[in-house]
Amino acid sequence: MNTATAEHGVITEAGTIRFERLLPGPIERVWEYLVDPEKRRTWFADGAMDARPGGAFEYIWRNADLSEKGNDPVPEKYAKYAEHRMIGRIIEADPPHRLVHDWDASGTTPNEVTFELAERGDKVLLTLTHRRLSGRSGMLGVGAGWHTHLDILQAKLEGRDPPPFWRTHSRIEREYEDLIPAE
């Protein structure tokens, strides 16, 4: 995958999608955008995080607020996610290189998200892997969601205005419909 541009996630096995982005460093700066609520809420979700193994975190999504571009209405099918919350636990933390946490622990098979950071000169390779997704619809929503959030993170770190979340997500979700095989 060419990480210099916003490439699509890659399905590495059933229920697993991986993304890579080459971001401006230093690595400590990118790490802060993962664990510091003030920085994280500018590209992904607000909420406290105890970034130690066993530590708790809460994600609070307000995706329409992620862009300065004005009106970005929530699509009807995602209306219940206009503000969405999730509580989880940190599984592994090795600052500033690796963060692993559960996802949707309320389900029968909790997902797992891994963020890995590796220095590449003055850049940082972010590899995000989301495991144990169930079904095509889960892959579509999560794939388009992570893709869009990572596009916003990249724009923020590069000092650019981020794309509007919901309009971008809708377009990217249609692209993932063509990329993710039907069940």
From TrEMBL:
Family annotation (Pfam families): AHSA1
Signal peptide region: none
Similarity section: Belongs to the AHA1 family.
Boundaries of every Activator of Hsp90 ATPase homologue 1/2-like C-terminal domain copy: 26-157
UniProt-listed Gene3D superfamilies: 3.30.530.20
Name of this protein: Ligand-binding SRPBCC domain protein family
